[in-house]
């Protein structure tokens, strides 16, 4: 048996739509694999009742097929599906790493990124690497096509997850079809600021670079209480706040001394909006961890 822990991730980070991603040190999925004649899947944990166990409909089934590695796969979900925290990507990344080890395929983590991306496509309808890249490689990632750049950043974060669901497909449907020159220039500037902040481990620059006038406003409208939660986090000391991935999760950059106060403020703001939520005091962390049993 091979076991892999794969972290939650936050994609886009505001200004880096479909390109930026970051591994979080918590929460995480645990995936265990054993050789079998055909692939079977068991799912337990947070939101397991919403995840199909049919290999043709599950991210890990697509990964097993791509690697020609049939297995009995057990997924213990620590990351709720439809959360904006890379739930499907974490499972796909974990399965890719575990099956590569189990069958001794000899692929590097970078080579596994597009394979995990095929699993992600089972849920989103398209191959996207902004979640699976940081889930496998850790840190802050910039994924353009199959080219992935990794920055070993150390930025404190708070991820707040409301008890509402926003599907990746629905969130993509509201993305504007075009942009003005002014919007493009603004977004490029913010993305450059965020990247500089990651390279310098500067929460102020990272937070400033999260601001986005193009995709985030459209997706924020799908999240009840978003504006109140954002303002509460900023008032509590967050340097920047944005939608995590497709939502409804919200991610805030901060300094370590403000993390607890920001987490409490975000949960309270959601409560005032009539929405239950949970907050994770986290940071940019490492990628999937492999254990051979």
Automatic annotation (TrEMBL):
GO terms for cellular component: cytoplasm. It is found in: Cytoplasm. InterPro entries: GHMP_kinase_C_dom (IPR013750), GHMP_kinase_C_sf (IPR036554), GHMP_kinase_N_dom (IPR006204), Homoserine_kinase (IPR000870), Ribosomal_Su5_D2-typ_SF (IPR020568), Ribsml_uS5_D2-typ_fold_subgr (IPR014721). One of its GO terms (molecular function) is ATP binding. It comes from the Archaea. Residues 197-271 form the GHMP kinase C-terminal domain. It holds the Pfam family GHMP_kinases_C. Residues 60-139 form the GHMP kinase N-terminal domain. NCBIfam families: PRK01212.1-4, thrB. This is Homoserine kinase. It comes from Haloplanus aerogenes.
